[in-house]
Automatic annotation (TrEMBL), chain A:
Gene Ontology molecular function: transmembrane transporter activity
Superkingdom to which the source organism belongs: Bacteria
Family: Belongs to the binding-protein-dependent transport system permease family. HisMQ subfamily.
Gene3D superfamilies: MetI-like
Keywords tagged on the record: Amino-acid transport, Cell membrane, Membrane, Transmembrane, Transmembrane helix, Transport
Protein name: Amino acid ABC transporter permease
Keyword Transport: yes
Domain ABC transmembrane type-1: residue ranges: 15-204
Pfam families, alphabetized: BPD_transp_1 (PF00528)
PANTHER family tied to this protein: AMINO-ACID ABC TRANSPORTER PERMEASE PROTEIN YHDX-RELATED, MEMBRANE COMPONENT OF AMINO ACID ABC TRANSPORTER
UniProtKB/TrEMBL annotation, chain B:
Residues in Solute-binding protein family 3/N-terminal domain copies: 58-284
SUPFAM superfamilies documented for this protein: Periplasmic binding protein-like II
Coiled coil region boundaries: none
GO biological process: amino acid transport
GO cellular component terms given for this protein: extracellular region; outer membrane-bounded periplasmic space
Protein name: Glutamate ABC transporter substrate-binding protein
Lineage: Bacteria, Bacillati, Actinomycetota, Actinomycetes, Pseudonocardiales
Family in the record: Belongs to the bacterial solute-binding protein 3 family.
Keyword Transport included in the entry's annotation: yes
Organism of origin: Umezawaea endophytica
Keyword terms, alphabetized: Signal, Transport
Signal peptide annotation: 1-21
UniProt xrefs under CDD domains: PBP2_GluB
Keyword Cell inner membrane belongs to the record: no
Automatic annotation (TrEMBL), chain C:
Entry-linked InterPro entries: AA_ABC_transptr_permease_3TM (IPR010065), ArtM/GltK/GlnP/TcyL/YhdX-like (IPR043429), MetI-like (IPR000515), MetI-like_sf (IPR035906)
Keyword Cell membrane: yes
Plastid is among the record's keywords: no
Cellular component terms (Gene Ontology): ATP-binding cassette (ABC) transporter complex
Protein family: Belongs to the binding-protein-dependent transport system permease family.
Entry's Gene Ontology molecular function annotations: transmembrane transporter activity
SUPFAM superfamilies for the chain: MetI-like
Membrane topology: Multi-pass membrane protein
Subcellular location: Cell membrane
Protein's UniProt name: Amino acid ABC transporter permease
Keywords recorded for this protein, A-Z: Cell membrane, Membrane, Transmembrane, Transmembrane helix, Transport
Amino acid sequence: MSVLTNFSSLFLSAFGTTLKLFAFSAVGSLILGTFLAMLRVSPVPVFRAAATTYVGMLRNTPLTLVFFFFTFAYPLLKILKLDPDPTAIVALTLYTSAFVCEVVRSGINTVPVGQAEASRALGLTFSQMLASVVLPQALRAVVPPLVSTMIALLKNTTVAAGFSVQDAGSISYSLSEAGADTLVGLGWVAFFFVLLVIPLTLLQRSLEKRWSVAR
Amino acid sequence: MRARTLAAVLLAGGLALTACGKEGTPGDTGGTAPSQAAATDVKIDGSPTFEKIKARGRVIIGVKEDQPGLGFKDPTTNKYSGFDIEIAKLMAAKLGYAEDKIDYKAVASAGREQALINGDVDYYVGTYTINAARKEKIAFAGPYYTAGQDLLVRKDDTSITGKDTLKGKKVCSATASTPIKKIRDENLTEPENITEFQLYSQCVSKLAEGAVDAVTTDDAILKGFAAQDPDKFKVVGKPFSLEPYGIGLSKEDTALRGKFFDVLEAALKDGTWQTIYDNTLGKSGSAATKPIIERY
Amino acid sequence: MSSVLFDVPGPRARFRHRVLAVVGVLGVVGLLGFIVYRFADSGQFEPRLWEWLQYETIQIGLIEGLLNTLKAFALGAVLAMVFGAFFAAGRLSEHAIFRGPSSVVVEFFRAVPLLIMMFTFYYGLPQVGVKMTPFTVVVLSLMLYNGSVLAEIFRAGIKSLPKGQTEAAYALGMRKTQVMVLVLLPQALRSMMPTIISQLVVLLKDTALGFIITYEELLYYARFIGSQGQFGRPLVPITIIVGAMYITMCLLLTLLANYLEKRNRRNKKVQTAVPVEDIAPAGATTGA
């Protein structure tokens, strides 16, 4: 307990950084991922190919390597200078968006073709069909796995600690520098992550149960 | 040959590259001093370590592998070079073992005491600061070099002249290391300007790129980096702490410790030490200060 | 076209698609061109930065790094499967004494970030006298995290089988273990194979976290080469090459998963009761 009380400001600022990384990357990856999913289902082959290549590359690269690239290699290309925190957000966003894209795409694909065909037969326009027929149904299949992706993102923010970001993963470094008990400190870090993740898991489970449709 | 072809194919990733690996090294990396003739008929009474070495016929020396100019392993040749390596070689020569009878073992900072206590290495030479806490577990011969915390900056940077000019500058050092703690504790720069990576080499990359303005740690380590890239970096040269480097060895082995003290004293007197320095760390352009041996 | 959203294009739509295709090609070419231009402009194509590739010792070093990655992956994968099977059995047990603790273990290790686990083993435990090599730490952490995820996959796989299978087996007079080993497991394993393999891809990628705690795997060696002043710090080239190596390895595994999935689909006897995405639990396919 003394580790937690003595270093409360460290814990607060570190988890604050973690949540900040999480919030920015979550919004970013949801937007980018949805956009990519649109490209992937688009009728234009080039768009599909581009999005497929992007997703294939990012999904098969370790996040650590993505971080490594943006921290050490990317600055050498002298495109746009980024501080460590924005760098981490960029890395997390690009990486997670590939997973978001997959979730959204497979969600859209769970809607039977007949639904779209029926709406067209009824004379609905493209946007009407999307807004009132396809997307509401796709949403049910998309949201639960999307929550899982966000849980993974929350845990993945810790990787930034290896790249000079003072987030929750870096608490042990600061504790060992101060000569405090790192084992107890890491125990608390793990505990807080469990606290953050469990509600999300429960949410995901209940959504999955409530929204699963027999098809 | 097959593995080599496979390697090239894997590496080239489709690029047409030669199937045969190049050998040798593209340039001077750490520097080597003229080698010492191995002594003959060495006798050290009551040294368990020396008995072990004799029985084995080889010396196992713990070193660092990622510090150019001090203890550095060249990836193109897998050979070790640097000031610490030369000191280690000198000791081995005086024990009667030439270079071809030495096995180097890279041991990172955190594992040094344990490696000596376990007897994994016969002795350790690698930016090993002598201090009281360590002396309780192991013994030191030295100092063979007196380092101090200093700053590495870009060659054209004139705004950083010492530790008191760091305010507003971005400073980088190894994660949770003593030097960065000093910067933080003495408030030498603002907390948001401190960058930490696991290795000094990563900080040096960031310095080259311009993301940080100074790298801080022992001047010996910094001189090594400066010697590797003399057109890019320079060491400020105003050390603000004292880090005496010693040769780490088993606490019980007082006989071997005595021998090492004799060798070091002789080397400082007859110019061997100076030759080693000039051929390694001296290339950075900084002058040497001879250490004062503290026998115990 | 696989999508449900679009009608079969008419002449006007086809024209529009063609225009969009041109725009798309221009966009992609423009982006690639910009990247290549940035590479050239910042001197990343200079021969000095790529010279290191030609050295035999470095090639061998890279291969050694790769082998270390694969070693951690192989051992981690086997142990995670065993761990997963054990705790899946625990969670499916009829006795609450097994179910409770198994659930706690699985939920706990799924919620804690892998890196925090590695830090705890590597920096925390030595304080109480437990010392492990980086390799042990990496394998142990991979086992605990991926094993917990696999436990959920196994459990979901067995639960997704039709109830009739169990009932029929009991009706034939089989005992509990027989039902599990002879009837449920073989079916579940086959239908779960693709999910299991995509989790193994995650495990393979997660080995790269080992470099943060000084395990000498591929990325660790990449960092070492990237810091070589004698080659002008070839950080961009080494990242590209190591990235290509990781992508190749993961793609090979993914191809295996796809192949197995296809073979399953052809085989009518196996029921893929639940689509893969639906049973993938928290973070299953999205590890670091």
